[in-house]
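Thread title: Can someone regenerate the structure for this chain?

I was given the following input by a collaborator and told the matching structure tokens would be attached. They weren't. Posting the sequence so someone can regenerate them.
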Amino acid sequence: MNLSATIEILAGGLGSGCNPEKGRCGKVPSRMEDIFPVEPEATITEPLLSKSSKAYAEGLVQKKVPTDKLVATQTTLFPELVQKFTENGKLRNRAGHLPLVTQVGDKYYIEDGHHRLAARKLLGKKTVLADVAIVDGNR
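Best answer:
Regenerated them for you:
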């Protein structure tokens, strides 16, 4: 997270003008790293958990994930999409899936749902419901 994002947090939260009661943010940061730490090389579940696979259906647990432990695996951020999710409050995508994260130790690597999870974090949510693949070992 950069210095300006840290200053915004100290001044009252990520994204100036975020209002959790109204479910909207006035200004969404334009960079993913202003919301989450970013490790783009960290994606590890692709061969293991194709969304159409049996492993996807059976190998995940739904649980509340702490938003301060989320790590982005993509660098691209579309502020207008994050804004949309702060306004509509949807956590499931069009196919009905929750965000997908991979837990390695105490980190949760976002595999799918970066914008939905960014919206939740900007609104000050401390935890978020996600489909979690748990991987033993270290990264």
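The CA atoms of residues 44 and 130 lie 17 Å apart.
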